[in-house]
Amino acid sequence: MLGFLGYPRLQGHGRWRIEECFLGRYDWAINVDHKQRRSLLFFHAHCPEDTREAVLETLQNERADGDRFSLIESFVNDLPEAGYRRAFARIKDYIDAGDCYQVNLTQRFSARFSGSPWAAYRRLRQDNGKPFSAFLRWDDKALLSLSPERFLELQGRQVTTQPIKGTRPRGRTPEADRQLAAALLASDKDRAENLMIVDLLRNDLGAVCEYGSVQVRKLFELQQFDNVFHLVSTVTGRLRQEFTALQLLETCFPGGSITGAPKLRAMEIIEEL
Fold this sequence. Notes:
- This protein is α+β, with helices and mostly antiparallel strands.
- It has seven helices and 17 strands.
- Among the domains are: 61 residues, no CATH class; 123 residues, GMP Synthetase, Chain A, domain 3.
- Strands 12, 13, 14, 15 and 16 form a five-stranded antiparallel sheet that branches. The chain has a two-stranded antiparallel ribbon with strand order 1-2. The chain has a two-stranded antiparallel ribbon with strand order 3-4.
């Protein structure tokens, strides 16, 4: 199964009409291991033979440079700067009043384009590779995701979540790189934001994991990517026998790092703004 879950309670707002949920069971898949630089082709046991032959023929004949992508216009922010500043000021008022500790206020940019979204994804993946990248295409829509963050992993009954809070750009020189990394590790602000989300996720996992099994394995670990440094923490737990993977997802969704803390109040503020 592959797909996505939409951000709760905000679907249908604005001019983008995207499903709240999309899941698909696929007859075949290509597993690309970028570290080992190899790809594996998998077929479902019930995949028809003619589909297998068509897939193999397509892959053998595909040209790597066959698709093109370009922007027709520059990206435009859907929220004017004055509106963003008002929203930001309102969040500060909520924090000062004790309503919340952290709110993840994001912006949406749009631009017209020509060509293939798949070509755009390949270019982004090449220039800005992340460990949890994904591309989905359905109907007349496409989703391009380049995420460095593991939201949830379930292996057997072992649950792992790795929230990210705290970011710095990579330096142009090795010395600048070291200085930026050291500044991030020493930042009280970034460490405090990270710790808030760690506490939130410990609470989420505690609702479905065995008592005493939820632990912070790593706190404020510096991880480097192509263009940025991140502070990453690792929280684990053991899922109780009476809960399923879907119930784990339902309990923890959406991830605290994209909402803020406390989660429900942060989501209410985001929707209000």
